Amino acid sequence: MNFSLTKEQQDIIKAARKFALGEFTDRAMEFDREEKFDLDLWRKACELGFVGTHIGEKYGGAGYGYFEECLINEEFWAVDPGIGSAILSTTFGAVLLELYGTDQQKETVLPKLVEGEVILGTAITEPDAGCDVTSAVTTAVKDGDEWILNGSKMFITNGTIANYILVFCQTDPENPSRHQRFSFILVPTDTPGYLANKLHGKLGIRASDTAEIALKDVRVSFENLVGKEGQGFYELMDFFNRTRLHVCAQAVGLARGALEESIHYTKGRRQFEQAIADFQVTQFKIAEMGTKIRAARNLYYEAAWKADQGKPDHALTAMAKWYTAKVAMECADEALQMHGGYGYIDEYKVQRLYRDAKILEIYEGTKEIEKTIVAKSLLK
Ligand SMILES: Cc1cc2nc3c(=O)[nH]c(=O)nc-3n(C[C@H](O)[C@H](O)[C@H](O)COP(=O)(O)OP(=O)(O)OC[C@H]3O[C@@H](n4cnc5c(N)ncnc54)[C@H](O)[C@@H]3O)c2cc1C
Predict the structure, then answer these.
(1) Taking the domain 233-379, which CATH number applies?
(2) pLDDT given for residue 320 in this prediction
């Protein structure tokens, strides 16, 4: 294992940071306040090659590893988590499609994701099925050469703007094993019966689209089955083992953004006739933030590196997922504290970081679920 970055990886970091600083900084407050997603900005990010970089060259992607994709996530989130999330989540589900989709599904969707022509989402969560994904009750029933889908999905990223949604649903509800009842089905969102309603008033990542979805007798071709019938649960776990790495990188990016803001602010803000950075209490906070960020980054680097070696380590990824999120929460909290009252106002970036951090402990596996995975592995 060697974490000295290659020249190409260093260039990816520089390019991603330059793009984010140039394009996100002046828009961040407005997009947060207005819950706005900018399609032109997303297309620009696609043109410059920042979106769907893990997608193979055969489908127009860069064919990068998860590691490189994590580096882009970290840079985008260090500048603005809301916009970073909105842009990079436009391919949410592409990993699943690439791992399990048919050639035709991949050829139809993947090149367009890279080119900025279509947006993908993945719908697992339901009003009564969150951490326990096996309690999902959305169904897909065979009718001739079609599937008919019925059900409701909750908190779906890109729900109102996606062109395709990968729907996690029961295709074999009578199977005695709860884990073998599910499959993924690719649903074009212009299919009659697909209804999405944007959710407003999120705490953070407000530039990202989140929706509730209703599926009412949605008919799609039998060929839209992704992966093996009845194996959807296992495919989902495999998918999360890889995409959770992105969330780790997002967390480290956010924590770094909080540290950068803190250093800048405390050097400029004077109280008791000195910069507040000169108080030892402030210095200790800065030292602790820097140390935690380094530790968190090393954890996710190792997990991403293993995934790229073809040996994803689910317990290590789970460790990285909860720990990086905790570091993000702690750094955002300390950063706001160091800004005092100014940090409480949304004109200051730290207020957004404080709100944006919380999602990292919730989506793609809550911190409790991640710790359960870690504990199971340690106690085995
Ligand atoms: C902004 C946003 C975007 C999202 N995007 C998507 C998306 O694109 N696609 C998608 O499918 N979903 C998405 N989600 C949903 C997200 O993945 C779920 O919110 C998450 O999985 C938790 O499910 P829940 O909210 O139903 O909480 P619940 O499952 O009801 O959990 C509530 C609390 O109970 C705890 N808990 C539950 N079970 C256990 C247990 N066994 N042991 C200990 N504690 C437990 C949880 O950790 C949590 O603290 C998104 C959510 C948000 C807020």
Answers:
(1) 1.20.140.10
(2) 98
Low-confidence ranges of the chain (pLDDT < 70): 1-3
* Residue 363 Cβ < 6 Å to ligand 1: yes
Using CA positions, which residue lies closest to atom 12 of ligand 1?
Answer: 125
Query: Which residue in this structure is represented by tokens 């990223």?
Result: 157
Q: Which ligand 1 atom minimizes the distance to the CA of 364? A: 17
Residues sharing a CB contact under 8 Å with residue 171, sequence separation 6 or more, in sequence order: 139, 140, 142, 147, 181, 182, 183, 185, 225, 229, 230, 232
- According to the model, what pLDDT value does residue 4 have? 87
Ligand 1 geometric centre to CA of 359 (Å): 10
Helical (H) or strand (E) element with 200: none
Q: How far apart are CA 252 and CA 320, in angstroms?
A: 10
Which of 74, 235, 334, 364 does the annotation list as catalytic? 364
193-235 pLDDT, tens per residue? 999 999 999 999 999 999 999 999 999 999 999 999 999 999 9
For ligand 1, say whether the CB of 199 is within 6 Å of any of its atoms. Answer: no
Boundaries of every domain in the chain: 7-115, 120-231, 233-379
- What predicted TM-score, i.e. pTM, was given to this entire model? 0.97
Q: Which fold has domain 120-231?
A: Butyryl-CoA Dehydrogenase, subunit A; domain 2 (2.40.110)
Atom 50 of ligand 1, residue of closest alpha carbon? 155
- Cβ(366) – ligand 1 distance below 6 Å: yes
CA gap 284, 264 in Å, rounded: 15
- pLDDT digit string (tens) for 277-308? 999 999 999 999 999 999 999 999 999 999 99
Residue 2's pLDDT is 55
Superfamily of domain 7-115: Acyl-CoA dehydrogenase/oxidase, N-terminal domain (1.10.540.10)
The alpha helices in the chain, defined as continuous H runs, are: 7-24, 28-34, 39-47, 66-79, 81-88, 94-100, 103-115, 232-268, 280-308, 314-339, 349-357, 367-379
Cβ 362 under 6 angstroms from ligand 1: yes
